Amino acid sequence: MTTPIPEEHKVAYNFLGRSGIKVSNISLGCATFGDVTWGWPGQTNEEASHQIINRYVEWGGNFLDTADIYALGKSESIVGTWLERQPRDKFVIATKVRQNMGTDQNVNNVGLSRRHITASIDNSLKRLRTDYVDLYQIHAWDDGTPIEETLRALDDLVRVGKVRYVGLSNVTGWQLQKIVDTSERYGLNSIVSLQQQYSLASRDSELEVFQVSKSAGIAVLPWSPLKGGLLTGKVKRGVKPTEGRLGSVAANTAIPMQAAPHWSTFNDQTFDIIETVEAIAKKRGRSIPQVALRWLLQKDIVPSVIIGAKTLAQLDDNMLAANGWSLTKEEMKQLDDVSRPALPYPYDMVFSLNADRVNPRANNFYVSSVAD
Length: 372
What we know:
AKR; oxidoreductase activity; NADP-dependent oxidoreductase domain-containing protein; alpha/beta; NAD(P)_OxRdtase_dom_sf; eight-stranded parallel beta sheet; 13 helices; TIM Barrel; AKR_Detox_Biosynth; single chain
């Protein structure tokens, strides 16, 4: 039997970018649902996945994020068998399109062409057992398709009611600006969110991508907020991990992609970050993951942070970051300082020259933790 959750600890709700929809400030990522996602250890079956979703809902969570590629459709199917027994309007369901599902030899079964997008949304809706998704996201840029084709196809899906809002994931600064400009040029439905890897150990997107996000009113949804388990305190300086996902990465036995930190990430700055987080956690009576998640939750461009959970205990610990406490300004600055990435040219010059030139009425939207 699970422990009752005090109201003051349940999630808060924020608007998703410039849209009128509100989402819980912690989103449940469903990449661990199913049994074949990238060969990583710790995937959960349908029964365990449903238990995790149910507990997440007890915390007040309303925002589930999946993708067609997660476990080659099994993640969407697991969410679907849960969703069909729920009041649909209570939940915000997000999924993604772009990757090759690998189920046949069809060379067109990949990318962001109109053909692949329209086929993929229908397949996703069938697996999710719903007639619409709240947020449909391109999973990454596609060099093989003109962005106008992609955005018009997504706009059509909104117009026919299969999709409510359009989002992005995993893009560079120039790609995001081109998407924003193209949407405005053709009068298409605007992009409401950007799902991007973001954590104390992965802040490079602050240099440019998030500058575009902030100026365009696009919400940032961090994924891998604990850097694939690196920011949990399980790994100590000078000790190579041998177990779990981090052990697989260190041993090069799993695909080194997405949330998995490359072994080169295990450097002095990373362990300075971990030790700083640990010190704050001990002082505040919190876990290391809670402090790392809370740092993201207090960033003004972030309405919701995407977490993954393989057990109910792990979920409960992470959800305690959602509400009822805050990091102080001094603690935020301490974490900003220890994790700040080096500024290569021209960012060092541009940010330095504009440090005392911030004018909110002149479209200066620098994300302060990098610019300061």
